[in-house]
Amino acid sequence: MMLLEWLDIEFSVAKWTGPRKIEELGLFSFWSRTDQELSLVCPTACLPNDVEVQEDGWICFRVAAQMEFSLVGILSKISGSLAEKEISIFAVSTFDTDYVFIKKENAQLAEYAMESIGWCFMNKK
User: Fold this and answer.
1) pTM
2) Phi/psi of residue 79, each to 5°?
């Protein structure tokens, strides 16, 4: 059984297509730079004012364990179970674990989807 944990924060997803310096935005900020864009996921309250495009209303849960790189299919199981309930996700993986962002109106349905595959939340939404 895998334990999941809700973060009690509302997030926004944003991007820039031009040059932009990456900055520190508190405990949770996920920056990703490619040749085409700079993306940011951070608490809505910390979102910089100069974003080009943003989408608000995201909440997040994470796998509440440090995961070895040899583990296979964790994010696939999560995304597949949520896809069956027609819940779209925005996922971020760090060195230690996976973070799954969903729209806040889907929280209860996401809990049901995860519990239906035998996973449980340490804290309920």
Assistant:
1) 0.90
2) -65, -35
